[in-house]
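Figure S7 source data.
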Amino acid sequence: MALDLDWVAAVQANTSAIERRAATLPGRRSVKKDFQAAWLCKAISLIDLTTLAGDDTEGRVKRLCAKARQPVRAELLEKLGMTGLTTGAVCVYHDMVEAAVRALEGTHIPVAAVSTGFPAGLSPYKLRLAEIGESVKAGAREIDIVISRRHVLTGDWQALYDEMQEMRAACGQAHVKAILATGELGTLRNVARASLVCMMAGADFIKTSTGKEGVNATLPVSLTMIRCIRDYMDRTGVKVGYKPAGGIAKAKDALVYLSLMKDELGHPWLQPDLFRFGASSLLGDIERQLEHHLTGHYSAANRHAMG
Ligand SMILES: O=C[C@H](O)COP(=O)(O)O
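Tokens for the predicted glyceraldehyde-3-phosphate complex:
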């Protein structure tokens, strides 16, 4: 849609109310036993299994993709009666896209590429747009772009909208997730306004963080962004996805996020086309909890090496 500056200016965020509400979220719902195992399997299906390290190699990406195809040991899945469980996607830097696409051949698992000068987004603008095209050409079906934080910090909503719209266009058929890097946006009001502008400009998903900021996904930020998604859907009928990313490493945190999505947005946001976790180590803890559920014992973390 066109940029609606009146709507953007009208957006406010009551920080103390959001923080108070967010503090109650971990205690609001609790799922136990078989229900918890089912929710944890659901969480696995929503993970963008991620490796974003300077020392990534093809070998590491191949192992990560093997884990994405078979996220939990076969005998545990058999005991749970689960078949066909995979992660939602594999998320890598551009240079690793081709290796990931090869390793995932024969599956429906998409490759997501972080792009546009990730994580700071400060490389030349033309190169940032070109990087998107390169990753799409290499086979990425999802592109995680980073926005220019300075457009938010200076209130230049037109510049943010134009940038997002051009990045959206450069993605073509690929899905685009807009990373706001909320830990660098200063206020929850900025987070809300940036969320809205990115949605107006065509983002398929809004995503909290790169995982490289000092503060990454948090519950107050999530509540703020989720309510923006809800307002946007109420006013336009358009459903936008949500991806909290960075620092989500424990199964119990994943359960809090899932119940938050169900409470605030409903069942459609528990599906991979509208919700993902960006996480590099969450899967390992979930697998460990599932093993405990089935055997009564915790295994060592090194038995769940990748993810
Ligand atoms: O987008 C995904 C994040 O970079 C992953 O962050 P994490 O390593 O803290 O799980």
